[in-house]
Amino acid sequence: MNNKKSKLVSCVIPIVRNDQFVAGCVEAIKKSTYKDYEIVIVDEGLERSAQRNIGIRRSKGDYIIFLDADMRVTPYLLEDCVEKIEGYTAVYIPERIVTKGWFGKLRDWERQFYNGTLVDVVRFIRRDQCPFFDESLHGVEDSDWERQILKNHPDAKFSTSDFPFHHHDNVGVIKYLKKKAYYAQCLNKYRLKNPSDKLLTFKYRCFDVFVENGKWKRLVRSPHLALGVIFLLMARGIIFWHRTMFYKK
């Protein structure tokens, strides 16, 4: 951009070697209305948290946005985040799940309950207030990273973008549950690091987040999807209980 006050945005994308989705992620960024950006792709064969840290070190931007290869920013997203971060530390970005079939629809519907809540995590942040990710965690490193921001900056405030990114993960039921089982291996360690985290309570994670601020009306309007979410909560609950009881790493 020709505006001298324009701020550089570093788009950090950790990928699995030869990731088939990254080209689409890059093309979506190139279509952004905000043009003062750099794209930092990290392909070192490491866990996502470690590759994100490499991306932080390599990036040169005033702001950093963390994306996965199967995510697509919408055209106005970067521009909106740069505007929304004024007076704030970081920005939440609404997520839309783009996966074919009823299960994809169910996950997208459930995800809308989490935007801007403790279940969500900020993705766009000022570089000078960006901590490194805990490389011993996977899956839950996002939530831990956000808790680090709040610990390092007790006065931190988060804004929310008006524009979403689209998540094209194409994950079916079996693969989805396997991912949750893998992520759950680090729950005990996360709990030790963040013992008072409200996110870990059954009441908030399985009830409050679905009914607060009038969101209960969505449950009433779509009872078939609400039942599907109950099934997912039960399945994840069983997985998390099993992992935290028997997996001590």
Strand % is: 5-15%
Question: Would you tell me the structural class of the helices and strands?
Answer: alpha/beta
Number of helices: 10
The average pLDDT score comes to: 92
What value does the Rg take, in angstroms?
18 Å
Unreliable residue stretches? none
Main sheet record: 6 strands, mixed
Q: Tell me the distance between the termini.
A: 48 Å
Question: What would you call the shape?
Answer: globular
The sequence of SSEs as H and E is EHEHEEHEEHEHEEHHHHH
Output the strand order for the largest sheet.
2-1-3-7-5-8
Number of strands: 9
The percent range for helix content is: 40-55%
Task: From the structure above, extract its key features.
10 helices; alpha/beta; 249 residues; 14% strand; 9 strands; single chain; three-stranded mixed β-sheet
Fold blueprint:
Elements lengths: L8 E6 L7 H9 L6 E6 L5 H11 L4 E4 L4 E3 L3 H8 L5 E3 L2 E3 L3 H11 L12 E3 L14 H12 L5 E3 L4 E3 L5 H11 L3 H7 L8 H10 L4 H6 L1 H24 L3
Parallel strand pairs: 1-2, 1-3, 5-8, 6-9
Antiparallel strand pairs: 3-7, 4-9, 5-7
Descriptive notes:
The structure is a single chain. The protein is α/β, with parallel strands linked by helices. Helices cover 44% and strands 14% of the residues. The chain has 10 helices and 9 strands. The strands form 2 sheets. A 6-stranded mixed sheet has the order 2-1-3-7-5-8. Helix 4 (101-111) crosses helix 10 (223-246). The protein is globular and about 50 Å long. It starts with 8 loop residues before the first strand and ends with a helix. The relative contact order is 0.13.
